[in-house]
Amino acid sequence: SVRSSFVWYRKNLLFDSPENATSIVSADLGLNISINNLPEPVVIEHDGVFAKHGLSPANKQSLTVNKTQLSCVYWDFDTGGWETAGCWLNYTSDKPVCLCSHLTNFALLVTTIQVPSGTALSVVSDIGCVISIVGLFLTIIAHLLHRDTRNRRPAKILLNICSNLLIAYFIFVVGVSQTSNRTGCKVVAVLLHYFFLTTWCWMSVYSYDMYMSLVKVFHKSQHQFLQRTSLFAYVVPFVIVVISASVTMGY
Predict the structure, then answer these.
(1) Where is each G-protein coupled receptors family 2 profile domain found (predicted)?
(2) CATH number where 183 lies
(3) Tens-digit pLDDT profile for residues 189-198
């Protein structure tokens, strides 16, 4: 029988390296030989370590996008540093999982990269969204105040388009930067997905109604047209969003 030993290092003080290594685990069979090219890789799961992406204020003029880069490494005693040969990261896992084809001191390197991002594009996007919100709001008010217009079918369809697009823009302006909270970020993504889909569906309904009015001029009036199209415009996006969230387990 072969006796194996595993050592977990709480800190990386014994490994003199500038890199920030976390979850250092040492695996040894006590044979005083190098164990390489294993037929089945060693699997090391790292709980509590996630690649976080968010916005943090670097200064008053710009924003800095923080990205966490994860790397599976081992300690090379010859070079006195962390190396990646024979180790790789399982990107399909919900949590970082390292796979290595040899036995040595394993670790997960966590590197935070700060990518400067100018505010010009962000400001232009915010201004454009605010202008769109004001325009959509005024359009809705104008149609609601005009009694003859609001009772017509095209006006009702247009009100649905404007209302859903207004909600989508408002959610985008308020929640697009809420990336620090994982749950809040998912909620914003789901709502944006749904309301942009409903807007697209109502635009399709509006196009169909225009086609029937301008091309099929003498067609018979469809009974309960708005009820049926409302079912299409609100239920179909809901089903798509539910399927997307279920398959991908989040956004």
Answers:
(1) 121-251
(2) 1.20.1070.10
(3) 899 999 999 9
